[in-house]
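hiii, so i know i said id send this last week but things got crazy w the move. better late than never?? heres the sequnce for the chain we talked about at the cafe, plus the structure i predicted for it. fair warning i was half asleep when i ran it
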Amino acid sequence: MEAPKPMQFDVVTIFPDFFGSILVHGMLKRAVAGGQLAVRLHDLRDFSEDRHRTVDDRPFGGGPGMVFKPEPIFRAVEAIRAEAADVPVILLSPQGRLLRQPVVEELSQRSRIVLICGRYEGMDERVAESLATDELSIGDYVLSGGEIGAAVVIECVTRLIPGVLGNEESIVQDSFGGEEFSGEPSGRRLLDWPHYTRPAEFRGMRVPEVLLSGDHGEIRRWRRRKALEKTFRKRPELLADLPLDDEDRQVLEELKQASWLPVSPQQG
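okay and structure toks below
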C-alpha cells in the first residue's frame, strides 16, 4: 500500500536559513522524519533577474524604507504552481485575517500551502491583489518580516496532521481545541483547565483532591468548571459565542456574583 503524501509547505523568503533551526527540533523534526510533513524553502533572490539579485525597490510616491518588487514573487509562486495549480497562496501580513484555531483547522485540510514572507516596508500591492489567495496575521503587532509568522503557521497546522502527536487526545484538550464535554463534538473554544502531576503535595501546595479521587464524572465536571473559570478570568470575549448548557450558565453566574476577579493596578 502506498504511503500517504506529506503535508507540504512551500515558503518564499529571503532568509531560508531562518527555518533550519525550527525543523531540526521537537514535533516538526519528528513530522519531517516520519514523512507527514515536507517544507520546501524558496529563496526569493533566486527569482530575480539582475546580477545583484535585487528583490526590492523604493516606493512610488516617496516615503521611508524599501518595498518588495512584484516580479520575483510572481515568478516564485508561478514556479510552484507549475507543479500544483490549485495550491493556496498565503501572504503573511499585518493586514490579514487573524490566525485563530478555526483557521488552523481549515488550513490543515489542505495538502499543500504556499507561504510568502514579507520584509521591509511591505510588498507591492499587486501581490496581495492578484497573486495571494489569502492573507494571515498572527497578531496585532509589527514584526520585521513574515518568517516568524510562517513558522507559527507551520507549527500549529502540523499539530493537526494525523499521527504527528503521540496522543491524539492532546489536540481536543488543548486551549481552543474544541473539547467534547457532552459526548458530541461541540466546537467549544475554552481555555484549557489546570494540569497537575506528581508529587501530590509540593511545598505545602496540594493537588485538588478531586483529581486524586478516581471519580471520573466529578473530575470531568471539575475540569469543565475550571476551564470556564480560566476563560472568564483571562479571555472573557471567548464566551460570547460559546454554546452553554444550564450548568455552564450557573457556573458563570456564580463567578460574576463572587466578584473574585483580581483588581488591576490601574483600577486600584
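btw Confidence is low (pLDDT under 50) at residues 179-187, 264-268. thought thatd interest u
miss u guys!!
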